[in-house]
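ligand=magnesium ion
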Amino acid sequence: MEPAGGASGSRRLLRRLRDLMASGGTAQERLDRIVTLIAGEMVAEVCSCYIRRAGEMLELFATEGLRPEAVHRTRLRVGEGLVGDIAAHARPLALAAAQTHPQFAYRPETGEEVYSSLMGVPILRGGHVHGVLVVQNRTRRTYAEEEIETLQTVAMVLAELVASGDLVNPVELASTEVNGPLPTRFEGARLVPGLAMGQAVLHEPRVVIRRIVAEDPAAELERLREGLARMQSAVDALLAAEDVVSGGEHKEILETYRMFAEDRGWIQRIREAIRGGLTAEAAVQKVQDDTRARMHAITDPYLRERLLDLQDLTNRLLQHLAGEVTARREMPEHAILIARTMGPAELLDYDRTRLRGLVLEEGSQTAHVTIVARALDIPVVGGAEDIVARVEPGDLVLVDGMNGQVLLRPGEDVQQRFRENIRLRAEQRAAYAAIRDLPAETRDGIRVSLQLNAGLLIDLPQLDHTGAEGVGLYRTEIPFMVRASFPDVAAQTGIYRGVLYQAGDRPVTFRTLDVGGDKRLPYLPPVQDENPALGWRAIRMALDRPAMLAQQLRALVTAADGRLLRVMFPMVSEVAELVAARAILDRQRERMAAQGILPARVEVGVMMEVPSLFFQLDALLPRIDFLSVGSNDLMQFLFACDRGNPRLAGRYDVLSPPALNFLRRLVAASDAAGVPLAVCGEMAARPIEAMALVALGVRVLSMPAAAIGPVKTMVRSLDTRALSAYLDRHAASPDHSLRNQLRAFAQDHGVIVE
Ligand code: PEP
Ligand code: MG
């Protein structure tokens, strides 16, 4: 017999499975018949079904081919052996020579030593692994992609049998999974700062799929077409809604989202699953399960985010297919939304006046939903693993976006302390607001210019909220990253004009594209750099692709018609790079001037990020109007220490003698040349580091909006004279760091650095 790969084989198998599921007998009897059927259809000597039990165990529940006495005896931990590996990673495995795989765990009671090849898939439901389905062959064979697909489809049907609760009592799993009413704490990622307290609202009303196996694939394909059309018009309606489009980016994000709704590859995969015998909704679910499983293996943050957006869309499509489109949902007065993942459009569906906080199992700084939540000022914690399974709607939840913590069902004393923190934070915000219009001036009369780091239009209202004097770093790559295709000159001009318009008479320092390395644009071909941070990025890429840089500079010149234009180049390693980039800028200025478009003044700067440039300051300083220290990159190159490697976090300190000495000499050289020096890396955003920078003579600090209040508070409480002398005295210190001394100094001299 033909193995059950391919659409018709898969359909035949599914139909038989459906009949079997509908036949009488206990769940165990049906499962026994199912494994026999699959072994026959897939032309395998063995088919076994392992089901997850309490305590992260997988138990052999049924087998055709292995020794019957192993059933209900053989148990593997999740992560143990090949079966455990499939469960742990929620991904299929197909091996021609299974026993040579390092994960192979031999169980003598099964008699499986005679089987060479193995193919297994997770039994998934709602993103959780409920078991593993495996086939094995005596002779060595390579399983085809379609066979894996078929086994995955079968696993979907089995998932329904498992979920029925007839095989394993669901109470068994619930009782051991910390699912009870006990308080639970989650450590996650800080995505949007802030504190929130409220009742849990579970996002994703699960759509229950009642029919899995299709009678008529043609009819299902038609249902899919209709569902897609309904969903697309719903997204269009969302796009047209007035209140969504306030910031510009919201619209842009939704546009990207619409692009996914038309994604051929995605729709194609759903169609294939329908042709394989599934109903439209089961096919959508299957593609979603596959995507979730694939996500575990993807580390590229941009790709992960796009996959998350795709899942958002999948949920919508499922609801449209099942006819369960939920309108804005009933929400308690203080709601904390809990989701595995969520798209920006979904967040906007909720009543914003009641939404206090958001907790995600996935999610990252650059996720679209995070960007939108930040714009709405809703605290967000991401990476709260498994929270969806452990929370009950209505549970009390505390969200601490500052520390990346979530507390479920906290005790009374914890609630008390949290309420107190919320009150203190409100007081602190009021205190920062009160000094918003006061100058950042030290007690000894030194003026420091505090500026904003920005990258999206929705960041710019922060200029007014914080009283920042300008945008010290506008990361132009960020609007490029949230788009689906490379913006042309007109689109770029529109973005930059919008930024300048919102900034009013405050200066904006535009940094040219800092992409390449690990900051990838989805529409540029990926580059495999062995050391991305040291790779083909920023100015290096720009000079090799001068047309791209020329377009950007032309857009900047055009947008700044009649006003000040400040441009800065990232990752410059030698003066020749500045000279080359500047020549491109000059050409674009001439070209636009011929059309009567010219900025009132143009200032050109570079970022000090690569130490080699420091040794060419004599040639550099006369050629630039300002210098800006990108301390994030500078420190990683100065210490030869990857800024993203958690094992090295804390290994070197920016408040150490080498770092401070570097900065001291840089300040001296730029002061002597009369070139203003700014610091725009994260260092400038932390009060104690900012204190050291001001004492060393830095007069411009650029930082995210949330840092302006704390840094201004520090500046206004600082007297630099004693600290500058103190730092000079410690220049030759052999210590690892001066952090403790600086903290003690702040405490002794009443400098507010918290
Ligand atoms: C820096 O390196 O300090 C910097 C500001 O640039 P980015 O963080 O965007 O690399
Ligand atoms: Mg940098």
